[in-house]
Amino acid sequence: MNNTENKSIWSVIWASSVGTLIEWYDFYIFGSLAPILASQFFPKTNPTAALLSTLATFAAGFIVRPFGALVFGRLGDLIGRKYTFLLTLVIMGGSTFAIGIVPGYESIGFAAPVIILLLRLLQGLALGGEYGGAATYVAEHSPKNRRGFYTSWIQTTATLGLFVSLGVILITRNSLDSDAAASIAKFNDWGWRIPFIISILLVGVSIYIRLQMKESPLFAKLKAEGKTSVNPLRESFVHKTNLKMVLLALFGATMGQGVVWYTGQFYAQSFLENVCKIDFEQSRTILIWSILFATPMFIVFGSWSDKVGRKWIMMAGMLLAILTYRPLFNKLLEWSDPSTRTEITERKEINTNTKPIGENFLRTVVTKTHFTDGMVLSETKIDTVYATPGKTTLKPDVKISKVVSSGTYWSIVAVVFIMIVYVTMVYGPIAAFLVELFPTKIRYTSMSLPYHIGNGVFGGLTPFIATLFTTIYLDDKLVGLWYPIVIAAVCLVVGTIYISNRIDPNVED
């Protein structure tokens, strides 16, 4: 590759990656703020049900991603890659901005969660068309012997989108007031809208960048020769040979890759906050550091797959996840368990605050317990003190939050880092693997559907199903892990037996 070609491919990667990163930012900021959105858009009478409803709404965006893959994949194979994933960017950005301005449940009642669900579905449809377009576009500009390396840059955008969303949330949360407690209160009340609203500026920049892009050379060549597909959906899913490749991609690669991706990042964050009860800010900075340290591994494994093949790197990532998830998550439980620590009894703090509500009072009792290793356990109990003698709150609202010591903090970062390395193993080579399974004229459609079923349905449901399991089987806090473990195990068996490790096995261009 000469200097001009090298400069051209990096321009393609930059233009594709910026837009895709922003789309992932838009998509994942919803999940990052799930506990707050639960209190804003659902009734507050049952916090657990509200959280599950929010996670279900979050998951709905994943479930419709395959439909987005069909709609936009077909467009991409008919009219071209460039304009199709430019359209998905506009839809995603508009939906995210709209979430930031929708009134809450207390203002418009059940219309609030309905509107949020509809916007979430639009986000899912848009993302269903984005990834396949970006990955295909980069791959079709890349030399065959470097497809793994160049497409792995697109693979970093999903994780970096989560990274950026977490960073924007923390910056916003800590900058609304000079007083930390007041800043947090303002963020929970209205400041959470800011990360959604500012996304429109990011989308505007990305649209400008993408408008400067040219069509994929391979697709442009097919179009000039009149060889583009007349019916991409039929050719992709009715023709026996191609349908076989679609099913193999789903059950032998993307299904397992999806659950590993969402377990190592999203469920890990949910587990730290909702099961381990780690402080909001600590749980997010733990993920930020882990992502920062692990992200270069996408490039490492993508590039390595150009030399040794895609299959065994992906299979190894799934196998490691299957064998180590329960021990790793169990460590998170142990390190956040205050019962194994020694309390400093003389440092116990109890602060009570009462606020009049009509004839009654809302009482908030905050108890802080300090431990010798540096952990601080905060228990906030909110109940109502009634003027009527003998009347009491049946079930006070109790919230627990833990700030772990520095040593424990970095130990948790190391564990989450390991889980994200598994993510890089299964995700780094996947774009090149999918591109090479399908011919150019139906590639956008054919690769998008198995990718978004594997990631959107099997992977995207991971936080919801795992959290749901923990609310049903209360005695086992690790029970939610059986879902990703079983899915990854099935995919490992199918992939090991049926996937070829040859590079470029089915590409005619």
TrEMBL record:
Gene3D superfamilies assigned to the protein according to its UniProt record, in alphabetical order: MFS general substrate transporter like domains
What keywords would UniProt list here? Cell membrane, Membrane, Transmembrane, Transmembrane helix, Transport
* Cell location: Cell membrane
Residues spanning the membrane: 12-37, 49-72, 84-102, 108-128, 149-172, 192-211, 246-266, 286-305, 409-435, 456-474, 480-499
Query: Where on the tree of life does the source sit, at the highest rank?
Result: Bacteria
Q: Give the record's membrane topology.
A: Multi-pass membrane protein
Q: Domain named Major facilitator superfamily (MFS) profile: which ranges? A: 12-507
Annotated PANTHER family:
MAJOR FACILITATOR SUPERFAMILY TRANSPORTER (PTHR43045:SF7), SHIKIMATE TRANSPORTER (PTHR43045)
Record's protein name = MHS family MFS transporter
Organism of this sequence = Chryseosolibacter indicus
